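Each lists sequence, tokenised fold; shown next:
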Amino acid sequence: MYTFDSRIRYSETDSEGKLTMASLINYFQDCSTFHSEDVGLGIKYLKEKSLVWVLSSWQIVVERYPNMGEKVTIGTQPYDMKGFLGYRNFWMLDEKGSYIAKANTLWSLLDTEKGKPGNIPEGMAEGYGIGDKLEMEYAPRKITVPQGGVNREPIIVRKHHIDTNHHVNNQQFVNMAMDFLPEDFAVQQLRAEYKKQAYLDDVLVPYIVEAEGRIVISLADQSGAPYVVVEFAGKGAL
């Protein structure tokens, strides 16, 4: 288990003064990055071995969105590693130790020289420390895109969307998708299935469909092949 303490900043909140989903994802992403760096398995280690972790899926369940100024604890724990796959939980707690949000993720380890999955190096699981799986209701990784949706104006990938792996960061994909949600839609659960990487100047075509309290958004290339599919569930739709 790895944790760090923080405080919700003004820059991380929405017009109501509450933490945004994008900022929550950034907290989780930073937590896993801090964990990797602190145990010697970070960016430098991976670069030397020509490896990179690529996120395959998110599931985030939100109990509530904390207010600006609240003190929080962010935690993460890998609970399984096999082949080229890594499974990792995340959570955010308030000062009383109550869960604000829980998350499950699946990661794929890629060999950057061969351009295909690479086996997890010996000692990596021990370096991270494999713990118990977080208690939560786990949703399927695969997301079905219903028929009957609409396409919206294409999005061009810009420099600010790109991370150190030189492709669109997973949080940036979610942020793009959230721009198409109704103003009053409160996200209680987010699921994201990442299909392929997007790079600078790529064109993403949004496809949006709403059904039974859920909104599914596919960000696809111009041939219709998705880069990512994101499902947002509102309160009462789980």
